Amino acid sequence: MDILKVNDLSKNYGYIKALKNVSFSVPQNTVYGILGPNGSGKTTLLGIITDVLKQSGGSFQLFEEAPDASHRKKIGTLLETPNFYHYLSAVKNLKITAAIKGRGADDIDRVLDVVDLTKRKDHAFSTYSLGMKQRLAIAAALLGDPDVLIFDEPTNGLDPVGIAEIRELIIKLAASGKTIIMASHLLDEVEKVCTHVAILKQGTLITHGNVNEILVNDDIVVVASSDNEKLKNILINFPGNTMVLLSDNTVKVHLPNGTANLEEINRYCFERGVVLSQLQLRKTSLEAKFMELTN
Amino acid sequence: MLHLLKIEWLKIKSYKAFIIILSFFCVGILASNYMVYSVFSNLSTNQDTQVVVQEFNPFKFSGVWQTVSYISGYLLILPAILLIVLVTNEFTYKTSRQNIIDGLSRAQFIGVKILLAFLLALLSVLLVIATGLFFGFRSGTSFEWTKFSNVGYFFLKALSYNLIAVLMAVMIRRTGFAIGVYFIYMGAENIIAQLLDVWSIKLKNANNIDLGSMGDYLPMSASDGLLAFPNNPFKELAKNAMPTEYFGVTLIMVFFYIILASGLSIRSVVKRDL
User: Fold this and answer.
1) How far apart are CA B91 and CA B111, in angstroms?
2) Can you give the C-alpha Rg of chain A in angstroms?
3) What distance in Å separates the CA atoms of residue A37 and residue A205, rounded to the nearest whole number?
4) Are the CB atoms for B78 and B31 separated by under 8 Å?
5) Where is A190: in which H helix or E strand?
6) Phi/psi of residue A109, nearest 5 degrees
7) Residue B27 belongs to domain spanning
8) Which of A190, B18, B142, B256 is the most buried (most CB within 10 A)?
9) What is the CB neighbour count within 10 angstroms for residue B241?
10) Residue ranges of chain B whose pLDDT lies below 50
11) How confident is the model at residue A295 (pLDDT cuts 50, 70, 90)?
12) Smallest Cα distance from B130 to chain A, Å
């Protein structure tokens, strides 16, 4: 089943086209990353899906039905900034969330514990630090243990320990079979947790699909020897290579995804009189791919 | 419906501004009526005015319903401001967004605010009834239903003020600005109303077209016009009563504005980005 299906979605703010005819689907049990630089339309897209923004064109479906409020009750969402009643405590704010969702009133202590806010649960939201506010927003999304979660920049405002904890939490949630839609401009965040990705640039969907298909085109074998010039000339004739580059103190051999065999390369060089001082397999990094796609 | 009200109650029951403004309103209704009551009590003990005042004492049943409704009407600005604060807060702190994200429909979000405006009007009416009973009995008269219709007009006025406040809050969305515009609008409407009144007189004199005082058909003037201080020898203290033959038109206009303000508020929340 598709949790979300977006058809030709557009959004204009006056003359500015924030989203241009975007279409993709989010299958069940995936961690779907929506990746793009600031201002690429990620939050606009999620805003439309959660009905806080009205689309200028196109449509979308939730749970393969026309979207309505009852679908949103089944989704835990953190959109852009933590939005709470500033004069109420964490517990009182979550009671409102639970009342709106119609479930989760008995789950408040658990979610506050998950985000490590138990000690401050009775203090007013206005006294919280930025990181604590973000944690409360994550707690609100987790309330009632929904099967689908939408996280928009979930690690915003968190310190390095907090970032690591939340990423671990997301991976754990994904492993438990939840569908997670996550917008981020942080590449390694998406790379570490997502199974699928959609890449947005200035409101246009550049590409989307399985992370392994989209983000890893080549295997790159990084090698080095005492004579890299000679090494490069030898490897140019290595069967199956798509490109050999000499850079700084290494030689990079590009091979089709999944075909690199380090042992074979080592033997190939040794048989031709070159002893390797370095031999390492790298996947094309998401960052490199992202830059390639968005520039 | 009850469920939505319960959610609203969770939001406001610990909000200090809500408690303070509502307390001011409750005390204010009693205090303002008591002040006028004291003036009349003093006049009734003064030998020069004793006879006239005893004859026209506006706090006797059944005049008390009209008197208390009229005086309390001046305090209806307080629940209106309270509503502006409550509604604009939702936009300032983006909790309006969060409510929708969590699963309220937009219609439910604005619907319960309109319901709150209705309940605050109802609370105002209960206060007026209690105050009316208190001063009516204190004046040594026995209960009468006559002129109780004024309490109904007071309800319409309260509802009208509250719904205009909700409309301004959802249109403007910023607390200070919305309250400012509410006050400016009240002043501006008075000026426009006077200009329309002058025009009405001109129309009547020049073309023999009698539409009443058209200034009285404006949103706030219309509901103000439903209530007047009872006829008394100190008429200059208060607005004259509406000319009876146009009362029906004014009443229809009040209902029209109540529906219009609700409709525009719903439209604004349902159609616009939050």
Assistant:
1) 16
2) 23
3) 12
4) no
5) helix A187-193
6) -60, -40
7) 16-271
8) A190
9) 15
10) 233-242
11) low
12) 33
Phi, psi at A19, each rounded to 5°: -145, 130
What is the dihedral sign for C-alpha B255, B260, B261, B263?
positive
Judge whether A42 and A22 are in contact, CB under 8 Å.
no
C-alpha span between B194 and B177 (Å, rounded) = 26
Residue B157 domain-assigned (yes or no): yes
Complex ipTM, two decimals?
A: 0.87
Give me chain A's average pLDDT, please. 89
Binary contact (B105, A69; C-beta < 8 A): yes
CATH number of A218-294: 3.30.70.100
Query: Is the residue at B7 inside a domain?
Result: no
Closest by CA to B10, choosing from A153, A89, A34, A258, is: A89
Chain B hits for A85, CB-CB cut-off 8 Å, are: 11, 15, 93, 95
Q: What is the CATH number of domain A2-214?
A: 3.40.50.300
CB B110 within 8 A of CB B270: yes
pLDDT at res. B230? 73
Residue B3 lies in a domain: no
Indicate the burial class of B13 (C-beta count within 10 angstroms; 0-12, 13-18, 19 or more): exposed
Distance set, CA A136 to CA A81, A120, A182 (Å): 11, 10, 17
Residue ranges in A21-107 assigned as alpha helix (H) = 42-49, 69-73, 90-101
Q: Tokens 């159609």 identify what position?
A: B271
Residue B5, domain member (yes or no): no
Angle between helices A90-101 and B2-12 (to 10 degrees): 170
Number of domains in chain B: 1
For the record, the structure tokens of B247 come out as: 């009362």
Interface of A with B in 39-98 (CB under 8 A): 47, 50-54, 68-70, 72-73, 77, 79, 81, 83-88, 92, 95-97
Spatial distance between the Cα atoms of B258 and B161, rounded to a whole number of angstroms: 9
Cβ(B242)–Cβ(B228) under 8 Å?
yes
* CA B201 vs CA A151, A190, B149: distances in Å: 64, 73, 30
Amino acid at A234: I
Nearest-neighbour CA in chain A from B17: distance (Å): 10
| CB proximity B267 to A under 8 Å | no
pLDDT recorded at residue A217: 63
Every domain of chain A and the residues it spans: 2-214, 218-294
